[in-house]
Amino acid sequence: MNTKKVIIVLAAIGLIGLAGCTGSSQKQTIQPGQQVTLTGLMQQGTLSGMSVVSYGNSLNLSGTALANYKMYCVTFEDSPVGAKGTADSSGKFSLSIKSYTPFGCFVLDSNDNHVADLLFAGLGTTSGTYSGSIMLTGNANLGTITVDPSTGEAVVNVAGVGGVAGNNITGTPFDPTGAWSFSCTSPVGDPVYSCPTDIPPSLYLDRISGIFSSDGKEHYGMGVWISQTNYTVCGRVEGISPTPGSTTGQGPGGQTVILDRADGPFTFAYDSVWQPALNSLALNTFSTCGSSAATCGQVTNVNGWGPPGTMSSPWTDPQCQQMCYADAFYNVNIKDTTSYCMEDRNYRWDMTGMQNVPNGPLNNDSNTSTSFIDFGNHNPAARLMFGELIYSSDTAASEVYTDYRLETVWDQASKTSYDCYINEVTKLAVSQLDANTLTGTVDQYRTLSGGSPTECTDNTIPNNYVYQDLSHPMHMMFRMTKQ
Q1: This prediction's pTM
Q2: CA distances from 447 to 85, 375, 450, 468 (A)
Q3: Domains held by the chain: number
């Protein structure tokens, strides 16, 4: 996925019905829109490994209560309403918010600076599935919330928590499939939300569903595409089934999913389609391998460049040419063309690092995942994301998407490149106002993972876009109008 684009990811929550209040003596029915109480305890901790993907296996609490920190929650409706609760010396907070209204939350420090986004575990089909929002049917105590300021993440498991909407739907959940105009509606002066400069004017949403063999229930996934044209070019499929035109796909844990419509794998068009076209263009803009050649196909390793930290095994000319093609792929926006269904795979910054740049032309990737939940780092550039859509009500849904990849910082002064391992979390919560209008929020933030050198965050290195991406999280409110 291109880090220069607003990336959107949709994850949702399910509904259990009336859960009542948390107190055993409180039996009255909570009316929609009535104020209910949300409580919890904020405690500092770490989420190690691949960010929230490893939650449950890598959680470490420091025991440090986040006194005077604030839980800031905002409802997803036509006129969003915010609510704050300040933690006491033990980290406990309390706030009031509308019942039966989906909302998302953030952790702020004592000066109202954004510290972390709150993710809700326990509502999806796997332990690695998260929701960006919940809805309350009564008073709810979330218990201990793990806040990791170093990653900008806060996680709490809400499975079975009284008053929190669960994973059932009372009627027919809304289907947002279609083309939508997209605009930012973030209010001026909000402590979290703003309007980024790079906003897609429209999006195409595609919901797909299937019956899981694990529980015999219907589950939903959603693709967010940059346009319906790109979706059409890619075959009108989400890539869930490994067999073209099949209604059988693979779900979490390798289980069988019976899809609601025929699907199939993507047919990517790269190397044989766009790479030769680059040979006629003067695209060696980064002077890859020190070559002064005008085109990528003419690049030679004139200075004997090699992997970072060693010059004992220089890259071959084909390896240098592949790195040039990777730069060209991004610089001339071939990745965004509407003519090809293309995989957003960075040839230069593969997960294996620069030491293993292929020695010749790359072939179609045969390892593209067919997971129902997460396609990992092998998405078509035309599709911004795909993930499990979790409904909190018939008219509200959310999705959280996690991505782990490797990016490279090039220091022209020292003629050295540095591998930066990036965790990226994107969440989108959406609420249907009517058949033609959606409202909600998009949140995205990036952090460094283990093994990343300090140069990744060195803003004195010219054109260090990794630093720029890390230091500029994106939080925005939006409105979509059906086209």
Answers
A1: 0.77
A2: 26, 20, 10, 11
A3: 2
CB 41 within 8 A of CB 159: no
Query: Tens digits of per-residue pLDDT, 331-374?
Result: 666 666 667 676 655 443 333 333 333 444 333 333 333 334 33
Residue showing tokens 């490149």:
417
Q: Are residues 59 and 177 located together in one domain of the fold? A: yes
CB environment 218-252: b (16+ within 10 A), e (fewer): ebbbbbbbbbbebbebbbebbbbbeeeeeeebbbb
Residues 321 and 375 in one domain: no
Let me know whether 226 and 301 are in one domain.
Answer: no
Its domain, for residue 471, covers: 1-264+371-404+422-483
CB 18 within 8 A of CB 30: yes
User: Domain check: are 385 and 443 in the same one?
Assistant: yes
Assess if residue 362 is contained within a domain.
no
Residue 25 lies in a domain: yes
The CB-side HSE value for 227 (13 A sphere, CA atoms) comes to 11
Cα dihedral angle (189, 193, 197, 198), rounded to 10 degrees? -170
Burial label for 344, CB within 10 Å (0-12, 13-18, 19+), is buried
Residue 361 lies in a domain: no
